[in-house]
Amino acid sequence: MIERVLTGLLAVPFLVGAAAAPADRAQVVFSFQDDDIVESSGLAVADGLVVTTNDSGDSGRVFTVDPATGETVGVTEWGEDVQDVEALAPLDGDHVWVGDVGDNLERRDSVQVAPLPVGPGDRDYDGPVYDLVYPDGPHNAETLLSDPTTGRLYVATKGTLGGTLYAAPEPLDPDAPNELEPLGEVLPIATDGAFLADGTRLVIRNYGIGVVYAFPSLERLDDLRLPSQPQGEGLAVDADGSLLLSSEGLHASVLRVSLPATSPTPSASPTRRTESREDAELPETTETQRPAWPWFVGGLIGLGCLVVLLGSLRRR
Question: Most exposed of 11, 23, 183, 282 (fewest Cβ within 10 Å)?
């Protein structure tokens, strides 16, 4: 609990330092009615239904929710030994990827993902669970994405000064560790993300802003100031291209916001990509990327607050 409070306090200066255009006015789509949904961390859309999972502390289960009513219509159980389930990503109309990828203390040798059946009705999953390993040691993460044109999985880490987007191997091996490949930097304190339907853009959010990136270049196309939420963590893309945003909390609301019309579409073709990730070069800087100094100034302020807080805790 203390770790979450400190992380949240440290994140505030980074959110304040971000220059972001406001998102369109948020619309409440529904509120979760299930008393068991108390910490909606991941979010995905599957065949018109909304799928979510609780943050760490729950058993391995995901909830399928009817957005017309907010009522849970199905629960998929998938494991009792999960450690920190944080993320979901779409797979197909009746399956999602679930990610046991949280690691607040950065001590885990591997993290896990699994392809779960979802939809109306309750079910138990006993299929393969895939181990993912980072090439540079453990990281905390809350963001799992799947490319709609290739099906490849990606993980974005939750770094305080900035995260990294990693690509999973294709295909995943159920019998051996799958080493992730670092692709480039993303915004600090990433809590969720999703690809847009054409696969040429993706959106990653933290507690206050969302960033639209071109893919695979990771050129920063647009920043969005997200609507206020108690602890906004989930993000999914609806069928019409709008963003759905969820928050922790009992009976929390799911909001819909539209991407601004100013968000450019990269010139890359939206057809299915077959080239390898190594064929695309990442630019070191782009004209649309924001300067880094507000993040570092905000970070120094946050570190100072953290030191003062820790000192006061020790004296008690």
Answer: 282
